Amino acid sequence: MSVEHLDVLIIGAGLSGVGAACHLKRLCPGKRFAILEGREAMGGTWDLFRYPGIRSDSDMYTLGYNFKPWSDAQAIADGPSIRRYIEETAREYGVDGLIRYRHKVLKADWCSASATWQLLVQRGDEAEPLRLSCQFLMMCTGYYRYEAGYTPEFAGLDDFRGTFIHPQLWPEGFDYSGKRILVIGSGATAVTLVPALAERAAQVTMLQRSPSYVINLPQRDALSNALRRVLPEKWVYRLARGRNVTLQLVFYKLAKRFPNLVRRVLLGLVRRQLGERVDLRHFSPRYKPWDQRVCAVPDGDLFRVLRQGKAQVVTAEIERFTAHGIRLKSGEELAADVIVSATGLQLQLFGGIDVSVDGTSFEAPTSMGYRGIMLRDLPNLAVVMGYTNACWTLKADLSSEYFCRLIRHMDAIGRRQVTPRDTDGRVRPEPFLDLQSGYIERASHLLPAQGDRVPWKLHQNYLLDLALLRYGKLEDDYLVFSAPQGEQQGVLAQP
């Protein structure tokens, strides 16, 4: 059976995948590539998540692509607007026609003899999987399972007679008007859902085991909207992007350096929003700022519905579900017609694809990230991921640009395989992510390590990564360039 071969295959047609395709089109115009998408539409997270109020908690000047200005008046955008932005970008750069929908990659095996990736792909409902090959593989699959979110094992869940929903699988057309709704969780999804649901529900309660830091941000960027009247759109976008990147980085650095000061500032801002109506302890976490992500609410919508009495916050632990709601360990029972489990994601690497090298399964937890893009001992593969302390697309853009530079460099030096190697064995492993969020701690055993030194260390610093990834040298002591087995072997990377 003939196997179609392409230069590059991109897995996933979400924000990262469409961005990677545009970078390839711009920077490697001679390469033949395709995007394989398991679902029936592009957009990734922004197409999958359809719960009420779905939005980004990051501004679109930094969540947007570095090559495609965000021109909408709203800086913090809702899900449908972000989905339209992705679709518009794909059309504008001519990559929408390169997406192959309902193509779910089952296996990806690196063949050293030919220096190619061999893919087994389930195409729609066809009985026989399709086989494809490529020289380079870009994993733009995100970091969580699309099939289901994380739901704890709640005692008595089967006893509940109302409707139980995980936001990741929100029922289309579900009518919650006039219902008593209980939202379990305190993260970004919960603080998004509560104000949206409160507009039509009889009562909304956010039940949290422990609080999160929440900050109010303006939904519209008044300065950028004013500058649009006198400056070209690209200038406005770049100015806003540079300003917001700097502010995000400064805020993160201050939180890490002076956590007690930043905590006082954050709690002071919440106190100003809530006044005396809501107990501030519901917004006073036990952990330091940026030990977990800080939740943003546009125009203080969460605080507004709390002040108005349309919603309330309860901080307590669940004992069990009952027929009509939830009983807390304190003995109190919270009545509900609908319970929403905004309890997080299930992390998953490679989109669940079985990755191997010459038939031997690749164990990511035993590997180490190289520049936050490639993995030790895994040839010709990029994992396009975002930041945890800033907008996802900032790092995704840099990662795609870097990999395009690497592809062009390999063409220039006449090598077909590139593999990160810990050649001297002196790099010490460290945890991949410096966050204490529940979904990360639950999946820590699935993640690769990072190293204690460059280029194995994650910086979580856009400005530093911009210098290193866009302008830094490609060849170093750890990146090994070679020919396929059977051809003359050679290592061209020099210190």
From TrEMBL:
Against InterPro entries, the record matches this protein to: FAD-binding_MO (IPR051820), FAD/NAD-bd_sf (IPR036188), Flavin_mOase-like (IPR020946)
Tree of life domain? Bacteria
Name the UniProt key words of this record, in alphabetical order: FAD, Flavoprotein, Monooxygenase, NADP, Oxidoreductase
**Which Pfam families does the record cross-reference, listed alphabetically?**
FMO-like (PF00743), NAD_binding_8 (PF13450)
Cofactor(s) needed, names only, are: FAD
Point out the coiled-coil segments of this chain: none
Cite the GO molecular-function annotations of the record: monooxygenase activity
Family from the record: Belongs to the FAD-binding monooxygenase family.
Q: What is this protein called?
A: NAD(P)/FAD-dependent oxidoreductase
**Which species does this protein come from?**
Ectopseudomonas toyotomiensis
